[in-house]
Design a protein that fits this description.
Two copies of one chain form a homodimer. By secondary structure, chain A is an alpha+beta fold. Chain A has helices at 67-75, 96-114, 135-148, 154-160, 213-226, 265-284, 303-314, 317-324, 331-339, 371-378, 404-411, and strands at residues 27-32, 44-49, 54-59, 83-90, 121-128, 169-177, 180-189, 202-207, 231-232, 242-247, 292-300, 350-353, 356-360, 363-364, 381-387, 393-400. Residues 1-7 and 193-199 of chain A have low confidence and may be disordered. At the A-B interface, helix 2, helix 8, helix 9, strand 14 and helix 11 of A face helix 2, helix 8, helix 9, strand 14 and helix 11 of B.
Amino acid sequence: MNAKPNQTSTSPLAPESFPRMPVIEGVALASGSCGIAKSVRSDLLLVELRAGTTVAGTFTRSLTASAPVKWSKKAVRGGQARGLIVNSGNANTYTGPAGKQAVERTVEAAADQFACRPSRVFVASTGVIGQPLPYEKIIGALPGLGRQLSPMAWDAAAKAIMTTDTFPKGATRKAKIGRVEVTLNGIAKGSGMIAPDMATMLAFAFTDAKLPATVLQALLSDAVDKSFNCITVDSDTSTSDTVLLFATGAAGNPAVEDAGDDALADFKAKLDDLLLDLAHQIVRDGEGASKFVTVAVTGAESDKSAHRIAMSIANSPLVKTAIAGADANWGRIVMAVGKAGEKAAVDRLEIFIGGHAVAKGGGPVPGYDETPVARHMKGQDIAISVDVGVGDGAATVWTCDLTHGYIDINADYRS
Amino acid sequence: MNAKPNQTSTSPLAPESFPRMPVIEGVALASGSCGIAKSVRSDLLLVELRAGTTVAGTFTRSLTASAPVKWSKKAVRGGQARGLIVNSGNANTYTGPAGKQAVERTVEAAADQFACRPSRVFVASTGVIGQPLPYEKIIGALPGLGRQLSPMAWDAAAKAIMTTDTFPKGATRKAKIGRVEVTLNGIAKGSGMIAPDMATMLAFAFTDAKLPATVLQALLSDAVDKSFNCITVDSDTSTSDTVLLFATGAAGNPAVEDAGDDALADFKAKLDDLLLDLAHQIVRDGEGASKFVTVAVTGAESDKSAHRIAMSIANSPLVKTAIAGADANWGRIVMAVGKAGEKAAVDRLEIFIGGHAVAKGGGPVPGYDETPVARHMKGQDIAISVDVGVGDGAATVWTCDLTHGYIDINADYRS
């Protein structure tokens, strides 16, 4: 149950560098080491949000959700936020009444510091499951972090929430609401849907847009459905998954009361794009990943059905190991479609790899030439698309391959 | 899409030897090489069954079921069997109209040889998906095999149906129906629920008991639910899974018309035991397996719910890699319970590893000593049990660990 050492080498799929993240008025960040993570590294993030900041959130559906998830889930109903505290190295999951108390004490200390109600402080923890959280270390570090709060410290913030991640994850977008330009910044962590001991995927997005919490929640839920809910590394659902979106309102855009308002079209598009960017970065840092894989399914009974078929392909160990071996083994894709339990016309099934048809009409493509497909499989970005021939349902999901690296990270470190 | 080379070394979990299988009156077997498998090895099995043999079967629920599965599923409705043909090296799956034709031609040739209706000949194929089956090789080999039929050739039969298996799988039991002793023999193959290119799990059981097909089917379905449906290697469902049970009737036991008849109690127990033995042998030959894992769940809302929770644990890549690393990482078991989507009382959850309590009442066991648990994890037989504290539902499933061997077998052989 020891904390895992950080991985030493950066994922081959990592972006070239961390993006330049602009200031978002009303957001200040500070991070540092409070001694929860076993290795000496930054493991605590504190964010102060100006009064009037609205908030929306989506959380893991796991039955064994962590104590911080339970707190934040409740707090988000208030729609208002003044602070966010995130620690890495300990997930505060399956820690019983002590876990709940740890959250309450932490939140009270932060509420004192920001002179706000505890219910306006959000918390997230990521790391080992089943170990008591030494929350007094967090409380002890808060005043020092409070003195270092800065609107610029995005890169350090993204680093403080890392566990088995091999690179910090950030993204930024500009959008217009009416004639007013607003900014969206996001940071995330995650290297498996759940990383090993280290439960979880976390993402925090911030904007200076002025939006009611209800509108924010509608936009966030929709964006998460199309981004984080469409990625998988290993099919294991975290106990701590948390996505929070904070809007400080500093941009002074025209008032919007409804998520369907046309004035939000650009903001919505950019929010979707921001979260998808972060979600893709998590896949690109998937444990042991050597290839980034896009699985698109069309022709399904419904979008939901298409999503399930795509996930059946993306989660199949046999498909994922074939990709790791650069093997254009489409028979395994047929198998994964077959086991999905969704409607599909086997005789009209079409499978494309890298845009090349490999199977059609219930059998291999006549005169199939594997050469261009084999070439595609050797690349870093793999595209699989499948049409199941029964309707208009479509979905796209993203995953990575299953390699020796995954076994190394998850089995070998203690043996 | 090449056929995979056979694994060179035998699984460390293999039984010491193939069992001594007695003759079953009315069953004669022959096997040999017909050239479908790429390597020169036995790849064809022919079984002749005496007239009057009854049959029952269970098959994959995959939507992309193979052509032989479709044939046998239909033929089993007739309840009568005279022959069985099994080839390895090619699954005859996703092969379109040509695949159906290949089955029909093969069956017709065997029906001529046995002077029976084609509908009394059963077929199964295991191997590569999506390649036309060169059925003329099978037809060409049938007369030769017909001349070699022997009631003793069980070991060779078990070898002829292997693909990535590292050892032949057989089991035998004696049972009493009334005062008459009957024999049960079974052979199986499978090294993943689906092995790589090599789709599948196959099992064939034979008895000299005299039982109507309807009774046989009821007994078989029940036994399969408790054995083959309770094992998982990699969560990938085969397109060719087939279990067939043949009863020649030669033993001359008293007539039984109902599967619930008390006279069948012993037979039923031995059949259950035989199939469980074969199912366990498949797990023991799981691709890359180094540990045999029993996952028992109690206290669930229903047996079905317990089964789903047990499978969520047994299929979790993080649980399976922890076991491979001999890591008593019970936090991952908590995670797998949480993601199962079934009712569980998190605050009453109890987890035992090797009989030692590790978690209880929503947190770690007070004063938890990892020493005996760590010792258990280093062994070859791992026992995990979980009580979820809501009802009387119980289920046990069996799996193996997830090791570098699995990646080697499934990713590396072509790269």
